[in-house]
Amino acid sequence: MCPLKAVSEITALVKEAAREAGFELAGIAPVRDFPELEHFPKWIAAGHAGEMKYMEARDESGDLKRASLQSVAPWARSVIICALNYNTEHPYSTKVQDSERGWISRYAWSREDYHEAVMRRLRLVEAKLGDEIEPSGAKAPFLSDSGGAAEAVPFHGDAGNPMCKPSATQGQPFSTTEAVPFHGDGGDQAWKRGPSGPRSAAEEDRVSAPVELITRCYVDTGPLVERVYAKYAGIGWIGKNTCILNQKLGSWLFLGVILTSIELTPDLPAPDRCGSCTRCIDACPTDAFIGPYQLDSNRCISYLTIEKRGSIPENLREAMGRHVFGCDICQDVCPWNRKAPATTASEFQPREGFVNPALDWLAEMAAEEFQPTFRGSPIRRAKRSGLRRNAVVAMGNSGDRRFVPLLEQLAVDEDPVVAEHAKWAARKLSTSQPRKS
Fold first, then answer.
1. Which residue among 9, 84, 392, 437 is least crowded, i.e. fewest CB within 10 A of its CB?
2. How many domains does the chain fold into?
C-alpha cells in the first residue's frame, strides 16, 4: 500500500499531472446543481436545441440528463476540468475576404481529431490519479474527509453520440456556440471502484477511512454541461457568446473532463469579465443571440452548417456568408482574443487546404475523395451532402458570377439538397450586382 495522502496533496498531484500531459489549464469543480443548469430545461422546451435530439436525452425518471450530473452519476464527487489551447497564427475569419474561398471553423483545421488529442492527455491524468490511489494495482487508502467507502454505483449517463453544443439559457450563461463533433469511444473506460461520501471544506485534510476510486473521462460525450463546470473549476467565465473565456488564453480552448468519486479541493469560480461589451452579439450575422448568454441554435451558423440536415431556411442563407463548416465570428471579435497565444501542439496545426478552402473544390467533391480528405477530422460530421450544400450557399453569397456555370451544373445534381441550394445560389448571383474586382 502507498502512504496515506491528504486531499490537498492529491489535488496538487492531479493538476501537476495535467500540466505534464500538455494542458494549459486544470481546475476542480464540485458536483452541484449549479444555478446555470436550471435554465437548461427551459432552453430545451423553447426548441432552441433545433434538431439536436441527443441534447434531450433523459434518465429513467424522464429528467434531462444534462440538467443534473448528480442524478446520472451519483457516485461523482468532483469534476476535473482540463483545457487545451488550439489557437494558431492564422488570421481570423473577419480578416479574410477572398470570394472564391470559404471558411472552416478554426477548431476543425487540426491534423488530428481533437477528441482523440484531448482524450489521450486525459488518460495520462487519470492514470496518474489511479497510481496515486492504488500504485501498481495494489489497493491503497486515500484520505477521505468524510467516512468509509460506499458500494460502487453503476453509471447510467449518456453514452450516445453527443457532438454539437450550440446552447443557451434564459438570461444566464450556459453553454457554447461552437459546434464540436464526436468521433470518440464514449469515454466508457473507468477505474471502477467505490465512491467516497460528501466532505466539508473545513475538514479539508482530516484523515478518515480509506476509500476506493471511480474515474471516467469525457471529451464532449459526458452527461454534463462542460462550460458550467469549467466556470466553477476556475478555468474561465462563460461569456455573452456562451463560450468559456480565460483572461490570458482567450476562448480557443478544448475542454476535457474527468469525473471522480474522490472529493478533491475545489477551485473558486472565475469572475465574469465581459462587462458592458456586446461585440459578439452585435457581430452575429444571423442574430442567433436572443440576448446576453442566450443562443438559439436554429439560427447559429455552426448549427446550420454542421447539425442541420436537408434544406437551410432561405431567410438565413444570405447571412451565412462563406461559412462552410462552423463559425468563429463571435470569438474573432472578442477583445479577450486579441492577444490570445498560439498553441504549441503540433496536432492542432492546419491540414493543407483547410484554411480558406476553395469553394469549387468542396462543391464538386466526389464521394471517393471525401472520406480520405477528412479522415480523422470533425468535418466528417457535416457529411459530404452537407458540406457540398454549404459550399454552394457560400458561392451564392460570394458575389462572384464566375461561379454561375458551375452552379447551373450543380442545379441538376443527383443530390436533391445540393441541387436545391445550387438553384438558389445561381439565381442570387444572376440577379446581384457584379462584384467589384
1. 437
2. 2
* Percentage with pLDDT > 70 across the chain: 80
Q: Let me know if residue 245 belongs to a domain.
A: yes
Annotate 23-48 with b (16+ C-beta within 10 A) or e (fewer).
bbbbbbbbbeebebbebbbebbeeeb
Residue 81 pLDDT exceeds 80: yes
**pLDDT level of residue 152 (50, 70, 90 thresholds):** very low
| SS3 of residue 245 by DSSP | strand
pLDDT of 303 over the 70 cut: yes
Q: What is the spatial distance between Cα 358 and Cα 266, in angstroms, rounded to a whole number?
A: 47
pLDDT of residue 267: 97
Q: Side chain identity at 183, as an amino acid letter? A: H
Q: Is the pLDDT of residue 1 over 70?
A: no
Helix, strand, or coil (residue 140): coil
Q: Which three cell numbers stand for residue 370?
A: 471525401
Query: 49 Cβ partners below 8 Å, 6+ apart?
Result: 43, 55, 56, 167, 297
Cell 436537408, residue located? 310
Give one word for 375, left, alpha or beta, with left for phi > 0 and alpha for psi -120 to 50.
Answer: beta
User: How far is 430 from 424, CA to CA, in rounded Å?
Assistant: 10
Distance of CA 319 to the CA centre of its chain: 23
pLDDT at 184: 30
In angstroms, the Cα distances linking 198 to 28, 32, 65, 116, 233 are: 15, 11, 21, 33, 18
141 pLDDT higher than 50: no
pLDDT confidence band for 298 (50 / 70 / 90): very high
What's the rounded Cα separation, in Å, for the pair 66 and 139? 33
Q: Which domain CATH number covers 401?
A: 1.25.10
The band of 368, judged by pLDDT with boundaries at 50, 70 and 90, is: very high
d(CA 331, CA 95): 13
Is 220 annotated in the active site?
yes
Task: Report if residue 80 sits inside a domain.
Answer: yes
* CA quadruple 227, 15, 10, 263: dihedral, nearest 10: 0
Indicate whether 366 and 245 sit together in one domain: no
What confidence score (pLDDT) does residue 436 get? 53
- Tell me, what amino acid is at 9? E
Higher pLDDT, 325 or 39: 325
What mean pLDDT comes out for the span 409-420? 98
Q: Identify whether 293 is part of a domain.
A: no
Tell me the residue range of the domain where 363 lies. 358-437
Task: Please tell me the distance from the alpha carbon of residue 105 to that of residue 87, in angstroms, as a whole number.
Answer: 11
Please pick, among 113, 145, 158, 220, the residue that the annotation labels catalytic. 220
